Amino acid sequence: MLQKLKEFRAFPARYGFFPYVFLIYLFMPAYYISIEQGWKQTLGIGLLLLFLVTYRQLYNTFDKNSYTFWFVVQIIIVLILAISYNLYNLFLGFFSAHFIGWYQSKLSFYRALGLFGLAIIIPFLVKWDTLIIETIYFYSIFMIIMLISPFGIRSMNSRMELEKKLEEANEQIEELVKREERMRIARDLHDTLGHTLSMITLKSQLVHKLISKDTEKAKFETKEIERTSRSALRQVRELVSDMRAITVAEELIETESILHAAGISFTFDGDSKLENIPLLTQNILSLCLKEGITNVVKHSQAKNCAVRLLNHPGEIELSIHDNGKGLNENVRDGNGLKGINERLRLIDGFVKVISQNGTKLMITIPIIAKEKKAGVGS
Fold first, then answer.
1. Count of Cβ atoms closer than 10 Å to residue 101 Cβ
2. Is residue 333 pLDDT above 70, yes or no?
């Protein structure tokens, strides 16, 4: 029960404080109801509470029929409060005007708009005899605004929906490109290295058999294994050189741009050149940095992010530290960190996550002498 209360939200989190700000406009109808007496005051309080329920339901309902039901109930309440209490309650129609713009179908939109138009015109006509010319102008201006505003809201919602679809489409395209790249690399590895590695395996088995029978022949075969392995190394190097490699220095420029666009301040400490570090290592480190910064922007709600890059003898250490809310379990087990771990395993690296005073990702990659030679050797 307590867990359900903790999870309860009056309005969806994606709307922020906007739905709560609108509630300020309920003070005026609440005042006019409070000056009534007896059953009329009680009924008015009940109608206002029901109006609050419709307001919440319209934010939380996604079924078209249920949405229309709560919209009609809200319109009826506005109609009753404007006729039976005070014509100023007509301005509650701004709530309903907002929700009309959420209808995606043109037919539903215009039907809702027509119903809304009747609901705000009827009280105006009923109270006509009590109005003076200045008041008529005053109400007319705001009624016109109420009838026009759904078009603007609908246009804004359509644009936001298009932007969302475009973002989803871009993500799908990016994922397809990654998948195609993985398949291409897999094909190339199979085609270029499959035969060579099979040969090394067979020769190794032959050496194992010859080592106690024919030492000279075994020595010759080990030389052949060395020659074949050098050929395999050259093939890997050629394959990597065909891939689009990103240096850490290039990725840091992109990192600063992304963080500033998200309103997060950025500081960097260290040497981004990483001279004499193999391009493959830099590429993987850059991809890990990109993934870490993406997590900061999407999940951290941070104001500051610091990146530190240290090139120690024998290893590189990259840390990404933000002052946000820390990682929850969903993000900690998400695809982003799994992707970082998978990439780092290729070069014997590892990542450590510290969720204290924000989140700190510490990525360590060993740089051994053999790897440096591989980047320069024959």
1. 19
2. no
pTM: 0.47
- Residue whose tokens read 């993406």: 294
CATH 3.30.565.10 for the 248-376 domain, yes or no: yes
**Phi/psi-derived region of residue 208, left when phi > 0, alpha when psi is between -120 and 50, beta in every other case:** alpha
**pLDDT tens by residue, 160-196:** 888 878 887 877 877 777 777 677 666 666 666 666 7
At 178, list the tokens. Answer: 């990654």
Task: Give, as one character, the DSSP assignment of residue 129.
Answer: G
CATH class of 170-242: mainly alpha
Query: What is the rounded CA–CA span in Å between residue 324 and residue 322?
Result: 6
Burial class (CB in 10 A: 0-12, 13-18, 19+), 322: buried
How distant is the alpha carbon of residue 15 from its chain centre?
15
Interval 265-282: pLDDT, tens: 999 998 888 877 877 788
Domain ranges of the chain: 2-130, 170-242, 248-376
What's the CA gap between 375 and 378, in Å, rounded?
9
d(CA 337, CA 327): 11
- 168 CB-side CA count, 13 A: 6
Q: Which two tokens stand for residue 75?
A: 């319109």
Contact 54, 93 (CB under 8 A): no
What are the DSSP calls for 232-281, one per residue?
Answer: HHHHHHHHHHHS----HHHHHHHHHHHHHHTT-EEEEEE-S--TT--HHH
- Spatial neighbors of 161 by CB under 8 A, at least 6 apart, are 104
Detail the DSSP E strand segments found in the chain.
265-270, 304-312, 315-322, 350-354, 359-366
